[in-house]
């Protein structure tokens, strides 16, 4: 399941991202509603989680705009220290559910699954599939399909690849990679991360001439960028 998260608080966004990923879903983070609404014009999301203040607009304004693009989109609103009046306002604006911020992992995942059941949109675990940038990720079989071929990855390679694709054009720190892919944190040797990145690069053919560039960021982590194909020259 593809989840869009609008959260100006980067630290809390990282927490939600890890919890969503641990629940078997892909999370695309936006720091404000405008880039999300622009992305939703060309991409599909199964669920929107938005902070009550979405960086540039309040949630009650964002909800109708999101539904104008994705009419049946389920929406959860995050409320810091929620008051009853805030919950009522969010629900009247069209939110399907509200969560207290900071989120509690098991409760958040349970509410997501309950909402998906009510919406009739929850995909069975053995049929989870996400398509990002021409790559189709099959979480049930740790397989990735692209350019008329399918490659089977190890579970850690798959989680790493999905993490990188969910953060296209954004730097991903080694700490985030370790916490998301290995879960054990900092006791994993640095060369282990480098080895897995190298394998993902090779298996998924992430090369500039094929549209992608996966580069190391010295002292920080890695970044995956999509390389736009050159447009043909327009005749004079």
From TrEMBL:
<dbReference type="InterPro" id="IPR036388">
    <property type="entry name" value="WH-like_DNA-bd_sf"/>
</dbReference>
<dbReference type="InterPro" id="IPR001789">
    <property type="entry name" value="Sig_transdc_resp-reg_receiver"/>
</dbReference>
<dbReference type="InterPro" id="IPR016032">
    <property type="entry name" value="Sig_transdc_resp-reg_C-effctor"/>
</dbReference>
<feature type="domain" description="OmpR/PhoB-type">
    <location>
        <begin position="127"/>
        <end position="226"/>
    </location>
</feature>
<keyword id="KW-0597">Phosphoprotein</keyword>
<dbReference type="InterPro" id="IPR001867">
    <property type="entry name" value="OmpR/PhoB-type_DNA-bd"/>
</dbReference>
<feature type="domain" description="Response regulatory">
    <location>
        <begin position="2"/>
        <end position="116"/>
    </location>
</feature>
<dbReference type="InterPro" id="IPR011006">
    <property type="entry name" value="CheY-like_superfamily"/>
</dbReference>
<keyword id="KW-0902">Two-component regulatory system</keyword>
<feature type="DNA-binding region" description="OmpR/PhoB-type">
    <location>
        <begin position="127"/>
        <end position="226"/>
    </location>
</feature>
<keyword id="KW-0238">DNA-binding</keyword>
<dbReference type="Pfam" id="PF00486">
    <property type="entry name" value="Trans_reg_C"/>
</dbReference>
<protein>
    <recommendedName>
        <fullName>Two component transcriptional regulator, winged helix family</fullName>
    </recommendedName>
</protein>
<dbReference type="InterPro" id="IPR039420">
    <property type="entry name" value="WalR-like"/>
</dbReference>
């Amino acid at each position: 399941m593809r989840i869009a998260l609008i959260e100006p608080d980067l630290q809390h966004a990282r927490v939600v991202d890890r919890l969503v990923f641990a629940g078997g879903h892909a999370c695309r983070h936006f720091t404000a509603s405008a880039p999300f609404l622009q992305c939703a014009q060309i991409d599909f999301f199964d669920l929107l989680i938005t902070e009550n203040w979405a960086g540039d607009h309040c949630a009650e304004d964002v909800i109708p705009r999101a539904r104008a693009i994705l009419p049946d989109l389920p929406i959860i609103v995050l409320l810091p220290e929620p008051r009853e009046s805030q919950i009522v306002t969010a629900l009247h604006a069209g939110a399907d559910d509200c969560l207290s911020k900071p989120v509690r992992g098991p409760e958040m995942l349970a509410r997501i699954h309950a909402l998906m059941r009510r919406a009739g949109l929850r995909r069975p675990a053995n049929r989870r599939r996400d398509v990002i940038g021409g790559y189709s990720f099959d979480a049930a079989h740790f397989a990735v399909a692209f350019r008329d071929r399918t490659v089977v990855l190890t579970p850690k390679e798959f989680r790493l690849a999905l993490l990188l694709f969910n953060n296209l054009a954004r730097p991903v720190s080694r700490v985030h990679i370790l916490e998301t892919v290995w879960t054990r944190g900092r006791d994993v040797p640095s060369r282990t991360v480098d080895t897995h990145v190298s394998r993902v690069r090779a298996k998924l053919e992430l090369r500039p001439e094929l549209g992608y560039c996966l580069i190391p960021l010295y002292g920080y982590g890695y970044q995956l960028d999509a390389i736009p194909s050159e447009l043909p020259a327009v005749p004079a």
